[in-house]
């Protein structure tokens, strides 16, 4: 049962959300700064990421599609999110599930048609939400027309759309013929060399990701014009911006020197921030973004916090915000999960608050399609604490600084998948790593699978669990492209929507709370107990409004004395019933989360 105090606070915030989804509130505000920030809709947004392949299938082929998304727009509106980020929906041979684009102006046939897309977009707008789409322009598919032309001959007009280089002479092969080695030692993120020899012209092309994902040459002005043109195509349709895939990698050093042993330890960093990155982002902004009211968020692989203001600073005219990887990967070591250490995570958020001023906006996220499930990675997905810790994590994501990005299914507390063998995986990154590490005897198979069970991207790509019917209601067909998590009978949307105690209902309340109080968006952030190993305690203060967030990141009960002379005040949100308020000493249960409004 929800205690009366919480219930009444929620009635208030739900009222705001029901009418605004966080949108009207922002547009009604005068342009004056708020706590030094210029208010904008994208700063106030709560973004929900859809991985279309796994969201909802409408035609029984076992693959999610756009009509499926359209059928769930009411669900998203009721949840209260204001912006949808759609992972790639473009025509693709799916070497990397759509992150390898064959035609930027066509919808992937498995997902539907352009008419389906237009209908979905209209449905999103009707519900006062917005849509951003994925912009994947560091590379294309090798089946893109530009690459098909490019590889056909050395003097093709498209040759210079990609990076082609001669190999280095290697020792003779078994047949005595000379062999060629790659032009340098750049590795691919997906195992092996980043260079692929193309027999047609006997030169190598660059692919930082899969062999089927050749990197575009942004130094060619024609490439940049093509990219700006396709961006305008989608903006003119009415989309509200872009999530930009691995955008810091677009500028390369064309002489491709070998990476040093140190650089090889962090190739994301080595490949990011090339000589013309800022110049190209500013040009893109002038040519495209400046002409529309859009939101841009860059996936900033390899960009440090110190470098962040150079991309997102207001006066830079590049991007609105980026995803730094420091928090989402803080407990990761390659394929392995490291022990969770709360003070380390807290220190990251403090560094962000101190390192980014009011002219550099931030993001907050801990999950997406490239990372394992939120509750399994940062919470406790055992039956006893799964729901509670999932709610705690949503409390945190929705009360921290920066635009919140939620990933599909986390609002239900969906968990990692019990992978047993390599055949359970779909991800090309895993399959390539298996060949490179397991089949060569570098890592025992059992260790590899055990590690991937906690860190694989496929954990978050299993189909959405809509109800308790076969395949979790994701499809009416007999098969799904990736197996549904066997826990769908217990964890599914239908069971949660009408249950006031569900993770879904709680997430809805937390979103409503954020939309109702600008302190969570523009307020100052202060960690009031940074060294505490199990309690995350922070305030968000904007003018007279001051909120205290308390999160118990452990299963142990904690008698917690709030540091300083603070009294908790009135409870506005909590994941367990409690009558404690207006007091300095609290009894927090395992994984309990509370938000108080301070007097
Ligand atoms: C980052 C994307 O998020 C990921 O899914 C993809 O594999 C790579 N970029 C390559 O596009």
What brief labels describe this structure?
globular; binds 1-deoxynojirimycin; single chain; 20 helices; 29% helix; 599 residues; alpha/beta
Topology:
Layout: H1 4-20, H2 24-27, H3 41-44, E1 46-50, H4 66-71, H5 73-79, E2 83-86, E3 90-91, E4 103-107, H6 114-126, E5 130-135, H7 145-150, E6 164-165, E7 168-170, E8 179-181, E9 195-198, E10 203-206, H8 221-237, E11 241-244, H9 261-264, H10 267-271, H11 277-287, E12 295-299, H12 308-312, E13 321-323, E14 332-333, E15 336-337, H13 342-355, E16 363-364, H14 374-378, H15 386-397, E17 403-407, H16 428-438, H17 445-455, H18 493-497, H19 503-516, H20 519-522, E18 524-527, E19 535-542, E20 545-552, E21 558-561, E22 570-574, E23 585-588, E24 593-597
Parallel strand pairs: 1-2, 1-17, 2-5, 5-11, 11-12, 12-13, 16-17
Antiparallel strand pairs: 3-4, 6-10, 7-8, 9-10, 14-15, 18-19, 19-20, 20-24, 21-23, 22-24
Helix pairs in contact: 1-19, 15-19
This protein binds 1-deoxynojirimycin (NOJ).
Largest sheet: 8 strands, parallel
**Lateral arrangement of strands in the main beta sheet:** 13-12-11-5-2-1-17-16
How many H/I helices? 20
Give the bound compounds.
1-deoxynojirimycin
Q: Give the percentage of residues in beta strands.
A: 15-25%
**First-last Cα distance:** 26 Å
Residue-averaged pLDDT: 94
Gyration radius, to the nearest Å?
24 Å
Number of strands: 24
Provide the low-confidence segments as ranges: 1-20, 23-29
Overall, the morphology is: globular
Structural class from helices and strands?
alpha/beta
What share of residues is helical? Answer: 25-40%
């Amino acid at each position: 049962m929800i205690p009366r105090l919480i219930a009444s606070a929620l009635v208030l915030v739900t009222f705001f959300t029901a009418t605004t989804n966080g949108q009207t509130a922002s547009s009604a505000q005068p342009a004056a700064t708020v706590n030094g920030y210029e208010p904008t809709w994208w700063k106030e947004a709560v973004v929900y990421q859809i991985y279309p392949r796994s969201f909802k299938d409408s035609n029984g082929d076992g693959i999610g599609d756009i009509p499926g998304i359209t059928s769930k727009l009411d669900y998203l509106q009721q949840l209260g999110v204001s912006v949808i980020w759609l992972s790639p929906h473009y025509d693709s041979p799916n070497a990397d599930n759509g992150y390898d684009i064959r035609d930027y102006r066509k919808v992937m046939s498995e997902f539907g048609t352009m008419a389906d897309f237009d209908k979905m977009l209209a449905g999103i707008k009707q519900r006062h939400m917005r849509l951003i789409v994925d912009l994947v322009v560091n590379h294309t598919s090798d089946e893109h027309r530009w690459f098909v032309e490019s590889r056909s001959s050395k003097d093709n007009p498209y040759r210079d759309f990609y990076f082609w280089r001669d190999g280095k002479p290697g020792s003779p092969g078994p047949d005595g013929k000379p062999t060629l080695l790659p032009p340098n030692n750049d590795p691919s993120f997906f195992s092996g060399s980043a260079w692929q020899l193309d027999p047609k012209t006997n030169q190598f092309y660059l692919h930082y990701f899969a062999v089927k994902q050749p990197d575009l040459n942004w130094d060619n002005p024609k490439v940049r014009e093509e990219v700006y043109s396709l961006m305008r195509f989608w903006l003119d349709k009415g989309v509200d911006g872009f999530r930009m895939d691995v955008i810091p990698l677009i500028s390369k050093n064309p002489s491709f020197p070998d990476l040093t042993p140190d650089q090889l330890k962090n190739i994301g960093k080595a490949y990011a921030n090339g000589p013309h990155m800022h110049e190209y982002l500013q040009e893109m902004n002038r040519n495209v973004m400046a002409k529309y009211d859009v939101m841009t968020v860059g996936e900033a692989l390899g960009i440090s916090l110190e470098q962040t203001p150079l991309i997102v600073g207001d006066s830079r005219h590049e991007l609105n915000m980026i995803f730094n990887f420091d928090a989402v990967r803080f407990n990761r070591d390659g394929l392995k999960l490291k022990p969770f250490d709360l003070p380390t995570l807290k220190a990251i958020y403090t560094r962000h608050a101190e390192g980014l001023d009011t002219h550099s906006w931030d993001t907050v996220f801990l999950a997406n399609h490239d990372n394992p499930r939120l509750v399994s990675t940062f919470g406790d997905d055992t039956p006893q604490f799964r729901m509670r810790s999932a709610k705690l994590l949503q409390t945190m994501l929705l009360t921290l600084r920066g635009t919140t990005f939620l990933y599909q299914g986390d609002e239900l507390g969906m968990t990692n998948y019990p992978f047993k063998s390599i055949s359970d995986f779909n991800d090309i990154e895993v399959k390539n790593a298996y060949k490179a590490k397991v089949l060569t005897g570098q890592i025992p198979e059992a260790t590899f699978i055990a590690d991937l069970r906690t860190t694989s991207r496929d954990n978050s790509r299993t189909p959405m669990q809509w109800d308790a019917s076969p395949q979790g209601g994701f499809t009416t067909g007999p098969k799904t492209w990736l197996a549904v998590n066997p826990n769908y009978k217990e964890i599914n949307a239908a069971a949660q929507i009408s249950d006031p105690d569900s993770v879904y209902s709680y997430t809805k309340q937390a979103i409503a709370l954020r939309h109702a109080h600008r302190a969570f968006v523009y307020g100052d952030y202060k960690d009031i107990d940074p060294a505490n190993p199990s309690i995350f305690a922070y305030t968000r203060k904007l003018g007279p409004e001051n909120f205290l967030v308390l999160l118990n990141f452990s299963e142990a009960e904690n008698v917690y004395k709030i540091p300083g002379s603070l009294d908790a005040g009135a409870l506005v949100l909590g994941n367990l019933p409690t009558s404690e308020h207006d007091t300095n000493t609290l009894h927090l249960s395992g994984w309990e989360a509370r938000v108080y409004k301070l007097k």
